[in-house]
Write a structure and sequence with these properties.
The chain has two domains: 5-52 and 179-250 and 388-455, FAD/NAD(P)-binding domain (3-Layer(bba) Sandwich), CATH 3.50.50; 92-174 and 253-384, D-Amino Acid Oxidase, Chain A, domain 2 (2-Layer Sandwich). The chain contains ten helices and 19 strands. The two termini are 42 Å apart. Helix 1 runs parallel beside helix 5 (179-190). Helices cover 24% and strands 24% of the residues. Strands 5-6-7-4-14-15-16-13-17 form a nine-stranded mixed sheet. Strands 1, 2, 9, 10, 11, 12, 18 and 19 form an eight-stranded mixed sheet that branches. A two-stranded antiparallel ribbon has the order 3-8. It has helices at residues 16-27, 61-80, 102-112, 151-157, 179-190, 237-243, 286-293, 351-359, 412-428, 447-455, and strands at 5-12, 34-38, 53-55, 92-96, 119-122, 145-148, 167-171, 174-176, 195-199, 201-207, 211-216, 221-231, 251-261, 273-276, 309-314, 321-326, 377-386, 393-396, 402-406. A hairpin with a 4-residue loop joins strand 11 and strand 12 (221-231). By secondary structure, the protein is an alpha/beta fold.
Length: 462
Amino acid sequence: MEKGKRFEIAVIGAGITGIATAYYLCKEYGRRSVVLIDSRDPMSYTSAQSGDNYRDWWPHRVMADFTNDSIDLMEKIARDSLNIFQMNRRGYAIATRSGNIDGLLAGLEASYSGVKNQIRIHEQLSAGSYPDPLSDNWQSKVGGVDVLSNKALIQQTFPSFSTDIQHVLHIRRAGDISGQQLGQTMLEQVKPLGCSRIRGRVVGLARNQGYYLDIQTPEEVISIHADIVVNAAGPFVGNVGEMLGIKLPVKNIFHQKIAFEDHLAAIPRDQPFAIDMDERLLDWSEDERSMLLEDCELKWLTQPIEGGIHCRPEGGLSSKWIKLGWAYNRLESIPNDSKELVEDIHFNSHFPEIVMRGAAALNPGLRQYYEALPPKRVHYGGYYTMTEENWPLIGPMDESGAYVAGALSGFGSMAACASGALCAAWICDGKLPAYANALSLSRYNNQELMSEIRQAENIGLL
């Protein structure tokens, strides 16, 4: 890359959010001098570890509107591309053994209030009462949520679930995508529109009639100038902010997952993304429990662990692969100081067995793997970069032309399109949605809003 090259807009970070920002800058606003800067291949770091799920359910209307807009944008790209990124709408199945779901129902009101027949309660098993629950056709499915509160109906609809499940909240405008393919689709479309790439790490950033960026490429350090800078650096968003003297209120949390070939067919291929919300005691044998109690570092595994276990078929009906994840590993958080972030991720070797045992509480068929974990499996993970309230930061970062699109926690794939479109609208003086200020740094000046958010029991972290 030529030294001293000038660009109108430099986007730092080529994860799915950075790519989406470049996409809407080029496609919607006709910007033709945009550069994506990343030391890695596009979408090869945090975006590569995504669960690739999406949902319109959130316990606050702002986040519900934001993700609904993102789903609209994804559906448009799906239609235009003949669904090249395999969007489906099998939903989210949120399961609990609790007899009291008043809190969960109250959370539904925030997402679905004001729209007729969006919250449907099913307390009886009757023929035709719950049609077409697991079809993957996102263009014809109902929205809202179906609350299944009849055990026979739950077993009929989700036969692999444990028989002690009392309620299932089936979020209908939800499902999964290939986030990698979505990102590649957007990237391919902006290349002929003037979006270029620099492979390198930003090591210096300074204001001077715009911004000068020093970039360490594989060969040398180069300098470029940009009128506008977008901080879409994912887990490094805090580091980039600090280069401009801006401390962003973010933290990084390490999440682990496993994917494996379900050669014993423990999980139906049409099962939606399923989440067991209940606190869990892992079902160790007495000998196993005794050994764990004798180990100071592992005895916590004999105590109740918070809920939030994820299970989803991966790769479509013809695949055998399954993904499992569990939010208990928030205990392995990186300190809030983003300088402590390490690029070489170290995994907990016990995680595959722990998450398998946890997931088997909802899907007992997984107990077949207790004695021998599936031989074909992948243990992977990445960083959730989030604010305390679990809302993103999208909008101006200073008054001189620096913007941020980050803190997308575990919802980066589902929110990337709306994040990119919103950031592009801020930059190009486009029409901003009603929630724009609430998702920007300016929300911290709105004491009423922040008080409301901080008093909420549920921040939408699944």
